[in-house]
Amino acid sequence: MNANTDILVQHNGPIATIVFNRPKIRNAIGLNMWGEIARVTKDLAQEPSVRAVVYRGSGIEAFASGADISEFKKIRKDLETALHYQAQVAAAYEAIRGCAKPTVAMIFGYCMGGGMTIAIACDLRFAAEGAKFGIPAARLGIIYGADAVSQLVSLVGPAFSKDILFSARAIKDREALQIGLIQRLLPPDQLESSTYEYLGKVGANAPLSLRGAKCTVASCLEGLTSERREALQQMAVQAIGSEDYREGTQAFLEKREPKFKGR
């Protein structure tokens, strides 16, 4: 758990959960929280005992209702402060996107603006029925960051991305599932258990394979250049020479569950 009580880190076996802990204001994300999200994400990415990371809001009313706009008159009062703020948001986004471990946004209620930035940075998004999504940047005179928009386009395509950004409307749960913004839609009383059950199974798989899968998918989206192909090939060669490869094949032959160590 952190000194900053706006961001909590909880551990459940090999699964770590980052909690946005401002339930009285629907977990709106303040400037100090962006830097903390980046820091704790990087720390968890380096922790060998952690196999997957969950992001969620405190309570069930909101994942995160967006940035804390009440701060904007102070922290985005001019170009200099606005650029500093954007850099903090970008650092958090990049930390989540760059995390080598599987990441899941577990979404209850409102997931808006900055909350959407975090959610789309994750590998997967599991939501409870009744969740609502949106990017109200057009109502605030803000142009959303290129990296986040690029990720949104990769999830829902260019036309739905334009719809979301142009209209600044709230996307309801069923539509979010239909367009590919979320991957699971569950009753509220099943979301938490289903998410952790899923990640328990994922976390039991070989960490080297999971990391390789993330890198391969990212490379496919960014373009399979010769340099990226070479890097992926090196990862594959390293995996074949790993302890986990030997353990996985031996466990298969012995008809038992493998015990991977990530090396």
Using brief descriptors, characterize the structure shown.
263 residues; 2-enoyl-CoA Hydratase, Chain A, domain 1; 6-stranded mixed beta sheet; 10 helices; 51% helix
Write up what this structure looks like.
With 263 residues, this protein is of the alpha/beta class. 51% of the residues lie in helices and 16% in strands. The chain has 10 helices and 10 strands. It has a 6-stranded mixed beta sheet, sandwiched between helices. α1 (31-46) packs parallel to α3, α3 (79-98) packs parallel to α4 (114-121) and α8 (207-222) packs antiparallel against α9 (226-240). The protein is globular, with a radius of gyration of 19 Å. The two termini are 27 Å apart. The model has no long low-confidence stretch (mean pLDDT 92).
Write a short abstract of this structure.
The chain has helices spanning 31-46, 72-75, 79-98, 114-121, 146-167, 173-179, 188-203, 207-222, 226-240, 243-253, and strands spanning 7-12, 15-20, 52-57, 62-64, 103-107, 110-112, 124-128, 132-134, 171-172, 184-186. 35% of the residues are buried.
